[in-house]
Write a structure and sequence with these properties.
The complex is a heterodimer.
Chain A lengths: L9 H31 L11 H13 L4 H31 L1 H14 L8 H8 L3 H25 L3 H9 L4 H39 L3 H11 L3 H29 L1 H4 L4
Helix pairs in contact in A: 2-10, 3-4, 3-6, 3-8, 3-9, 5-6, 6-8, 7-8, 8-9, 8-10, 9-10
Chain B lengths: L1 H27 L2 E7 L6 H8 L2 H4 L2 E7 L6 H6 L5 E5 H9 L4 E8 L9 E6 L14 E4 L5 H12 L8 E4 L5 H6 L5 E5 L2 H7 L3 E5 L1 H5 L6 E6 H6 L1 H21 L3 H11 L20 H13 L9 H4 L2 H4 L4
Parallel strand pairs in B: 1-2, 1-3, 6-7, 6-8
Antiparallel strand pairs in B: 3-10, 4-10, 5-8, 5-9
Helix pairs in contact in B: 2-11, 2-12
Chain lengths: ~270, ~325
C-alpha cells in the first residue's frame, strides 16, 4: 500500500514492482533448479526427495485424470461447512458481545481461556465424544474458525462511530436497524480480515483432522502416500494444498475488495 | 603465519588425541541402538531381551521409541533417526519397492498352522456378525491403512463372502480399539494381543473371526528392519542385536504366562497383568520364510497395493533366514 501524501510516480512504482516480482520468481526458480540438479546428480536420495520435475508430472497426473476431484471435494466440503457455520455464529455472537457490555463481561473470561488454546489439542477429546467421522472434524475446524472472526467482530462493533449511531437513533431507527445498517457495515472491514485469518486456520485444521482420522480428503492422502512410500505423489498432493491455499486467499481478497471497496480506498 | 601454524599443529594433535581416546572409549562403552517398536504382544521377545539384559550382554544399549504401528517407524528408519524398526511386512515391502533400502534382519511375529492367532476381529458382546458379508456397510477399526492388519481384514471380508470395498476402515491405535468398540465409535475392530484378551476377559467383546488363519497359514506378520547401508557398515552390531533378540525369543517361548513374563508385557503395554491372563500365543520364530512373504505379496497384488514382480529373497538379510549363533 502506498502512503498517503508521498505517492511515488506511477511508472516508477510499476517498474519497481515488476523488478520485485521478477526477483521473487527468480529465487523460486533457482531453488527448484538446484534441487533438480541435486537429485539428478545423486547428491540427495531420490527415494526420499524426488525431483521437482517428477513431482510436477505426478501433480499433472492427479489433475488430468480427475483423481483430484473426490479428495478435494471432501476437504472443501469440511472447510466450507465448518467455516460458514462458525463464521455466522461468530459474527452474531460478536455483534451481541460488542453492543452489550453485560454479555461481554459474562463471556470474556471463557473466551480468553478458549481462544489461545491450540485447537489440534482438542482432537483427542473430541474423538471420544464425537467419534471419527465428519461431526468431529467439523467441530474442530469450526472451533478454529470461530475465534478470530469473533474477536475481530467485537472490536469492529466497539469501534463503530457513536455519532453515526446517535444520528440513526435520532432519525427513529430501532436498535435492530442501527445494528444492521450502521454498526455492521462499519465493523465489516475488521470482520472480513478476521474471516481471512479464520480461513487460513481452517485450512490448517482440516488437514490435521484428516491426517488424524481421515477416510478421504487431501490431508489423508498426504499421510497415506507417506505410509506407502509414494513420495512423489505425496509432494504432488502437498502442491495441491499449496495451490488451494493460494487460490482461497486470492478469492477471499477479491471478495473483500468488492464488499468493502469504500473502506479500502486510499484517503484523498 | 607462525602463530597460525602453531595453532594448527596444536589443533591437529588435539584432534588425534581425541580420536584415539574416542576409539578406546567406544570399545568400553556399549553401542547405542535406537529401535522403533509398537507396544503389542508381537514385540515381547525384544522387551524380554531388554529386561533380561540379553542386549547388555552383547554390549548393546537399546533405546526404544513406541509408535502406533503400521509404517510409522519406517520413515524414522529412512531418516536415520532410528537404526532398527519393528514393522509389519507390508510396509517394508512397499518401502523397499520404492527404493528406500530396507532389509529384514530378524523375525518378529507371525501366526502358526492353527488357532489362536495373535490378533482377531472382535465386536461388542452380543453382536451377530459372523462373516465379512455381515460387516458390509459397517465401520471396522484397523491400526493403520495399507498395512498387514488392513490387508488381512480386507482379505478376510472377501474370503467370507463380503465385498471388502463395502466396509469402512477407520484408523484407531491398538490400545484404544476396545474402548472404541465399547463406545460404538466402530462396529468391529481387528485388534492384536494383549488388548484382545483384555477385551474378552473384561466381557466387553467377543471374537467375530480370525483373518490371519482364515486367509493364510503361517503369516509372517512383522519383522525387524534396518537400512542396507547401516547393515553393510555394521554387520557385527546387527549380528549382536539378532543374537540377543533370539535369546529373547527362546525365553519368551519357554516362559509364556509366567509371573515374570506377565510383568514384562504389562510394563510396556501399560495393562495390568490380570487383564490379559490366559493369553494364548503361537510360538515366536527366529527366522523368516521367504515363501510366506511371497504369499503376502500375492495378497497385496490382489488388493492393488502392489504391481509387478517383487523379489522377497532380496529383502532378507542373512540374519533373518539363518539362526545367528
Amino acid at each position: 500500500m502506498s502512503t498517503p501524501g508521498a505517492r511515488p510516480a506511477p511508472q516508477a512504482s510499476r517498474r519497481a514492482l515488476a523488478v520485485d516480482a521478477l526477483a521473487g520468481v527468480g529465487t523460486f526458480a533457482v531453488l527448484l533448479l538446484s534441487l533438480e540438479w541435486a537429485v539428478r546428480t545423486g547428491k540427495v536420495n531420490a527415494a526420499l526427495i524426488p525431483a521437482p520435475s517428477l513431482v510436477a508430472v505426478k501433480t499433472w497426473e492427479i489433475v488430468s485424470r480427475g483423481e483430484i476431484l473426490a479428495p478435494l471435494g471432501a476437504t472443501l466440503y469440511l472447510l466450507a461447512v465448518a467455516s460458514v457455520v462458525a463464521c455466522a455464529l461468530a459474527v452474531a455472537a460478536g455483534l451481541l458481545m460488542g453492543r452489550h457490555p453485560a454479555l461481554h463481561a459474562l463471556f470474556e473470561p471463557l473466551l480468553e481461556i478458549l481462544r489461545p488454546l491450540p485447537k489440534p489439542a482438542l482432537l483427542p477429546p473430541l474423538m471420544l465424544f464425537l467419534g471419527l467421522g465428519d461431526a468431529m472434524k467439523l467441530t474442530v475446524i469450526g472451533l478454529g474458525v470461530f475465534f478470530p472472526t469473533l474477536i475481530n467482530t467485537i472490536q469492529g462493533v466497539r469501534g463503530a462511530d457513536p455519532v453515526q449511531i446517535d444520528v440513526a437513533r435520532t432519525f427513529g431507527h430501532p436498535p435492530s436497524a442501527v445494528l444492521l445498517k450502521v454498526v455492521l457495515p462499519s465493523a465489516l472491514p475488521l470482520i472480513l480480515s478476521g474471516m481471512r485469518i479464520s480461513l487460513g486456520l481452517g485450512l490448517v485444521l482440516v488437514v490435521v483432522a484428516e491426517m488424524m482420522a481421515g477416510t478421504g480428503g487431501v490431508g489423508y492422502l498426504i499421510i497415506d502416500m507417506q505410509r506407502t512410500f509414494q513420495v512423489a505423489r505425496m509432494y504432488a498432493w502437498i502442491m495441491v494444498l499449496a495451490v488451494l491455499g493460494l487460490l482461497l486467499n486470492h478469492l477471499f481478497v477479491r471478495l473483500e475488495r468488492r464488499a468493502i471497496h469504500w473502506a479500502l480506498q486510499a484517503p484523498a | 603465519m607462525r602463530n597460525t601454524f602453531v595453532a594448527r599443529l596444536v589443533r591437529a594433535v588435539g584432534l588425534a588425541a581425541a580420536l584415539a581416546l574416542g576409539a578406546v572409549a567406544a570399545h568400553a562403552q556399549p553401542t547405542k541402538l535406537r529401535v522403533s517398536t509398537i507396544p503389542i504382544i508381537d514385540t515381547a521377545p525384544l522387551q524380554v531381551a531388554i529386561a533380561k539384559g540379553f542386549f547388555a550382554a552383547e554390549g548393546l544399549e537399546i533405546d526404544t521409541t513406541p509408535t502406533a504401528g503400521g509404517a510409522a517407524g519406517l520413515p524414522a528408519l529412512a531418516a536415520g533417526q532410528v537404526q532398527i524398526t519393528f514393522s509389519n511386512v507390508i510396509s517394508v515391502v512397499l518401502g523397499a519397492r520404492q527404493g528406500l533400502g530396507f532389509e529384514l534382519i530378524a523375525a518378529g511375529s507371525g501366526t502358526g498352522d492353527k488357532l489362536p492367532d495373535l490378533a482377531a476381529i472382535v465386536a461388542k458382546k452380543g453382536h451377530t456378525f459372523k462373516t465379512g458379508k455381515d460387516l458390509e456397510g459397517k465401520r471396522l477399526a484397523v491400526n493403520t491403512r495399507n498395512n498387514i492388519i488392513w490387508l488381512f481384514a480386507r482379505a478376510w471380508v472377501q474370503a467370507t463372502g463380503g465385498n471388502p470395498d463395502a466396509v469402512t476402515y477407520l484408523e484407531v491405535p491398538f490400545p484404544q480399539m476396545i474402548d472404541a468398540v465399547k463406545g460404538d465409535r466402530v462396529d468391529a475392530a481387528f485388534v492384536v494381543e494383549p488388548f484382545m484378551s483384555a477385551g474378552v476377559n473384561a466381557d466387553a467383546v467377543s471374537v467375530v473371526g480370525w483373518p490371519y488363519n482364515t486367509v493364510q497359514k503361517r503369516v509372517p506378520v512383522a519383522q525387524y528392519a534396518a537400512m542396507k547401508d547401516f547393515i553393510q557398515k555394521n554387520p557385527q552390531v546387527i549380528e549382536r542385536f539378532v543374537r540377543a533378540y533370539n535369546k529373547g525369543v527362546d525365553w519368551a517361548n519357554q516362559n509364556v504366562g509366567s509371573e515374570e513374563w506377565l510383568k514384562i508385557v504389562a510394563a510396556y503395554t501399560r495393562l495390568a497383568p490380570e487383564q490379559f491372563k490366559g493369553l494364548n500365543l503361537p510360538p515366536f520364530e527366529k527366522t523368516v520364510d521367504p515363501a510366506g512373504i511371497d504369499q503376502v505379496v500375492d495378497q497385496m497384488r490382489k488388493h492393488k497395493l502392489l504391481e509387478g514382480a517383487f523379489d522377497s529373497k532380496a529383502l532378507l538379510y542373512k540374519t533373518a533366514t539363518q539362526v545367528v549363533r
